[in-house]
Amino acid sequence: MQKEKNQSYITSLILVGCLYFIFGFITWLNGTLIPFLKAVCQLNNFQSYFVTFAFFISYFVMALPSSAILRKTGFKKGMSLGLLVMAAGALMFIPAAMQRNYTFFLAGLFTEGLGLAILQTAVNPYVTILGPAESAASRISMMGIANKAAGMIVPAYLAGILLKGIDGINEQVKTVTDTAAKEQLLNELAQRIINPYVVLTIVLVVLALLIRVSPLPDVNNEEENTDTAMHPSIWQHTYLLLGALSIFCYVGVEVITGDSIISYGTSLGIPIDEAKWFTSFTLGCMVAGYVAGIILTPRFISQETFLRICAILGIVLTIGVLTTTGKTSIYFLASLGFAHAIMWPAIWPMSLKGLGKFTKTGSALLIMGIAGGAILPLLYGWQVDASGNRAAYWIMIPCYVFILFFAVWGHKLGYKKRYL
Question: From CA 380, how far away is CA 226, in angstroms rounded?
Fold first, then answer.
């Protein structure tokens, strides 16, 4: 009996790990889509960052509805539904490519994001309550590694297809005077995305069916409310609201770093065939950060202290990006991945502590904070057009400062006076 229980637990972890891999793959694909769609649809920098806006704003739109959906469907059916919605979004890329219509591409990204929001809302708490509470941090870290490993593989697959020889095509487009010839070049470039997204659609549908018939248990996520009298309103938990703003800042800087590094590299004159690997370097640094977190917290250092160190490291490395040139600047930018790794695992529990019956609503508010990945990269793209790729990175410094504030003082506000 115990052996069957262990096998079921391992099977569940593997299936959930596959989900983290899939949405890591799709999320980190945005870094490849930005330069690709910029070329295909002839966009400026500001316009190209609507890729991240369309994708991440869906989290803000879908966070609260996702909770309602999951209450009706349960975790397993909810995961399957999320995958099917993502498949619908991926399928929209086919007519978008055929018509070379940027609005259709953005609609596909938004739909993918809606499905991913449902999936994230189900999977994040699911992996926490799937096994013993004392090993939850270890499971979350394993899932994080699966997520970032997917992002490291993207350049070996889709970037190699979509961005191959794109520098030469961009130069041809600039020099071709015949409108019909220019349109043909761009249409042929757009066709590259069709086959990969057909495959992606099929994978998502198959995975949705596998999850639906899988032995994943429908675990219970109900929480007891032990402090209703002390907390008549969720808005009294100041630290939760500051935590949501910290998530907003963290996701914003992570997306800027991961999704801009290819374009930043090409702006420095680095060929796209080399620059396409820079996102993998960033995610490699994040994996190193996850490993450091597993080893160091809480045995040697508290998550609060580690978050403070990483926020300071973010400030220092960003200054390094702003004050150096060439590949040295790229190395500073990629190294920010290490600073980002601990932020989600630390901010999340620091924001939800002591919420009682408000935990689900608090989780939804934190998910809404993912909208930072929509707003801040768009501001970065606007700054790139105004002041250049490198100078635009200054907008990340106030974000790290706010995360540092949360790590030092913010996580205590509204909590200390009630609980200590």
Answer: 44
Query: Taking Cα atoms as reference points, which of 17, 59, 35 lies closest to residue 264?
Result: 35
Q: Mean pLDDT for each 10-residue chunk of the chain (420 residues)?
A: 57 79 84 92 93 93 84 83 95 96 96 90 71 61 77 75 86 85 91 94 92 72 46 74 95 93 91 85 87 80 89 97 94 95 85 76 84 94 92 97 95 65
The residue extents of the domains of the chain are 2-215+235-419
| C-alpha separations of 37 from 29, 30, 189, 394 in Å | 12, 10, 10, 25
C-alpha 197/C-alpha 203 separation (Å) is: 10
Other C-beta atoms lying within 10 Å of the C-beta of residue 314: 28
- Looking at residue 161, its pLDDT comes to 87
Q: How far apart are CA 6 and CA 8, in angstroms?
A: 5
Token pair, residue 212, equals 């639906």
Rounded to 5°, angle at Cα 66 from 60 and 71: 155
Provide the pLDDT for residue 225. Answer: 45
Q: Give the CATH architecture of domain 2-215+235-419.
A: Up-down Bundle (1.20)
Distance between start and end Cα atoms, the chain: 44
pTM score, whole prediction: 0.83
